[in-house]
UniProtKB/TrEMBL annotation, chains A, B:
<dbReference type="InterPro" id="IPR051081">
    <property type="entry name" value="HTH_MetalResp_TranReg"/>
</dbReference>
<dbReference type="GO" id="GO:0003677">
    <property type="term" value="F:DNA binding"/>
</dbReference>
<dbReference type="Pfam" id="PF01022">
    <property type="entry name" value="HTH_5"/>
</dbReference>
<dbReference type="GO" id="GO:0003700">
    <property type="term" value="F:DNA-binding transcription factor activity"/>
</dbReference>
<keyword id="KW-0805">Transcription regulation</keyword>
<keyword id="KW-0804">Transcription</keyword>
<keyword id="KW-0238">DNA-binding</keyword>
<protein>
    <submittedName>
        <fullName>Helix-turn-helix transcriptional regulator</fullName>
    </submittedName>
</protein>
<feature type="domain" description="HTH arsR-type">
    <location>
        <begin position="1"/>
        <end position="94"/>
    </location>
</feature>
<dbReference type="InterPro" id="IPR011991">
    <property type="entry name" value="ArsR-like_HTH"/>
</dbReference>
<dbReference type="InterPro" id="IPR036390">
    <property type="entry name" value="WH_DNA-bd_sf"/>
</dbReference>
<dbReference type="InterPro" id="IPR001845">
    <property type="entry name" value="HTH_ArsR_DNA-bd_dom"/>
</dbReference>
<dbReference type="InterPro" id="IPR036388">
    <property type="entry name" value="WH-like_DNA-bd_sf"/>
</dbReference>
Amino acid sequence: MSENNQLRDVFDAIADPTRRQLIRLLAGAEEIPLHELTAKFQMGRTAVSKHLTILKEAGLVTDRKVGRETRFRLNASPLREVQDWVVFYSNFWSTNLSRLNRLLEEEEE
Amino acid sequence: MSENNQLRDVFDAIADPTRRQLIRLLAGAEEIPLHELTAKFQMGRTAVSKHLTILKEAGLVTDRKVGRETRFRLNASPLREVQDWVVFYSNFWSTNLSRLNRLLEEEEE
DNA sequence: TTGACAGGACACCGTTTGGTGTCTTATCAT
DNA sequence: ATGATAAGACACCAAACGGTGTCCTGTCAA
């Protein structure tokens, strides 16, 4: 259905707190260029760029060049796999959520 | 509220496919001893034990000694953090799920 | 009581990870 | 035309990861 050309495991991609922060930042705007993202972190541009590459490999981010800057955009849909995975186990931490889980499963179909 | 003594990031703990497989196995039974878990994998006992240690550090697993064997048990509740995290982004991959998300948020309180 | 089994504790190893710095190229503004 | 900015492409590095094998101890069964 959607893009399954991800070379990188989504669970692996979201394991790093810096990358989750990047996702959070990208969720707050249409597009953000690398230098602007870099400004939000203590680390250098190269490191941030590497994290974005990993997110790209997982299909969580797309990029396009505009002038001299590279702008990044969030594509959250691969996170659905995480959602599907975790919802299964929500039965195990609370029983009164099981009604909601059934709702979710219905909606998935 | 619940145990927050986790030395290890939950997202990090579930990043490895072997560890997700361990969680899956432990979800299917009350308790499973190490040697029995090891039998399900190709790798050796030491490796499986290390993975279980990581899961333990994330609070996802508890263990108890019974005779000469160490039995492991799933504690899924730290996965709630993952659920909370991913639910936020479900707005970004589908708009007709937002009703369900509101349901989830209500239930969380 | 002897042997087999379960598993903790190490030491070890190759690869990956997460960062750095530097060099170069392309682009924009003056 | 010149200088500053954006970022790709590397080389490099220490530390963590994901495995291995070995040794030792405790426990169960014959």
